[in-house]
Design brief:
By secondary structure, the protein is of the alpha+beta class. The chain folds into 2 domains: about 100 residues, no CATH class; about 35 residues. Helices cover about 40% and strands about 20% of the residues. The strands form 4 sheets. It has a two-stranded antiparallel sheet. A two-stranded antiparallel sheet has the order 3-4. Strand 7 and strand 8 form a beta hairpin. The longest helix has 18 residues. The chain is elongated, with a radius of gyration of 20 Å. The two termini are about 30 Å apart. The relative contact order is 0.09.
Amino acid sequence: MLSNEVSLKKDINGIIIGNIELKHTLFADDACFITNGQRKSFHTLVTTTEHFSNISVLKLNKDKCTTLKLGSLRNTDVNFCKTKHLNWTCNKATTLGYTFTYNSYEMLNDNLNPNIKEIKLCLHTWSRRKLSLLGKITALKVRPL
């Protein structure tokens, strides 16, 4: 319901990638909302989430919410919706298990390197075992993410 509401709101402008407008990503109880940095888009997004909270009794956990300023807003003192006491940063934010930063090297390091280390450890463990191809496939299927 919230996903549809955000998608359909013309006053919420996301970012355009290719020919697709991206306004949000949602998974279970985790959400990431993306606007183009315009005050009106941000205010409409906040109002929409508050309206959803009022009718669904689901609330945003403001202690876990971070507003990441990127692009032209990064080094400004912009703080839309000051009365909402949102956590604003220009450094890094984590959502859906991924860290986003302004620095692409740091973002790559935070997101990719832990996975590479885990894969190397898994391969090292497998190299000491005499598993058949079927055994390796089975082990991969039951391996926690």
